[in-house]
Specification:
Mean pLDDT: 90
Strand content: under 5%
Number of strands: 2
Number of helices: 13
Helix content: over 70%
Largest sheet: 2 strands, antiparallel
Order of helices and strands: HHHHHHHEEHHHHHH
Structural class: mainly alpha
Length: 291
């Protein structure tokens, strides 16, 4: 191997692992300058804080690897949060019925995004900006300027409970991340997603149903975001229109930091989680460092 080839390989390896190296640097740095940063209680809080956006980021990653983008995630959560609260408080539905229904609603919102992108032939950036305003507006309308409270105590476990000292949202994030990684790396469907984002025309010529794939990816994103909806409502324990607003930007930032390409065809779950941890460490440690 020549020196040029060796240098190129080393450079490519370093570039690929830059987000992870940045995370390690931040952890070491804030261990010294932020009091109580490296304690079990604080690290558990940090991971729980990022778990909500981390779950939705996995869904967004599917869309981005496929060459699209979804900026309506936060608005989907706003609408779903209010609707789920109404189901349990006003309609008296038990969580065992309301939660599956809201998962179907979230999947349906993703279907709307995908359908509009296909039928109108407009870039998903424009479509999801528009649907974001629609979903958020619908949430404000059905909420009627109130904080919806009075949920069953059993519902509190999803956002505030623990399993062996591990917060439930963190466990859900890990499960979603593992399933997402398996689909992307070990299945034929995952290879089709990378093919779609890498070269749409080549994927079409290879037999991939482009339109169906795009709709499915938005539906996956909507379904995953509806999981975040359930956890956030359980955590806050009040149906309100501020819950989830702006979450899509944390997801997008984490994806780009973790190596998910804005153009599509590149990305992995490990890099995504590293990007989310970088955001979480900065937010958490800066707050500790100010006191």
């Amino acid at each position: 191997m020549s020196n040029n080839q060796f240098s190129a390989r080393v450079g490519a390896t370093l570039q690929k692992n830059v987000p992870f190296l940045v995370l390690v640097f931040l952890l070491v740095l804030f261990t010294f300058i932020a009091p109580n940063f490296m304690t079990f209680g604080n690290l558990r809080t940090l991971i729980r804080q990022i778990s909500f956006a981390g779950i939705s980021a996995v869904g967004l990653m599917f869309v981005m690897i496929g060459g699209g983008i979804d900026l309506s995630i936060g608005s989907q959560i706003v609408f779903g949060n209010v609707l789920l609260a109404i189901m349990m408080v006003d309609w008296k539905l038990p969580p065992a019925v309301a939660i599956p229904l809201i998962l179907l609603v979230g999947t349906g919102l993703g279907l709307i995004n995908g359908f509009l992108c296909i039928k109108l032939n407009i870039h998903p950036l424009i479509i999801t900006l528009g649907t974001a305003a629609i979903f958020k507006g619908a949430g404000y309308i059905i909420n009627q300027s109130r904080n919806i409270m009075g949920f069953p105590d059993s519902f509190r476990w999803f956002g505030q409970g623990y399993v062996w000292e591990i917060p439930v949202p963190v466990i859900v994030m890990i499960i979603v991340a593992l399933i997402g990684s398996f689909i992307l790396t070990k299945t034929y469907f995952g290879r089709q997603i990378f093919a779609l984002g890498g070269n749409e025309e080549a994927a079409r010529l290879a037999g991939v149903n482009i339109n169906r794939m795009k709709v499915l990816l938005f539906m996956i994103c909507g379904f995953v975001s509806s999981i975040t909806t359930v956890l956030l409502l359980s955590r806050v324990f009040a149906g309100q229109t501020i819950t989830g607003q702006g979450l899509e930007f944390d997801c997008l930032t984490a994806a780009l930091l973790g190596g998910v390409s804005f153009k599509g065809g590149e990305g992995n779950v490990f890099g995504l989680m590293v990007g989310m941890l970088i955001i979480g460490v900065l937010n958490n440690a800066m707050q500790l460092a100010t006191f």
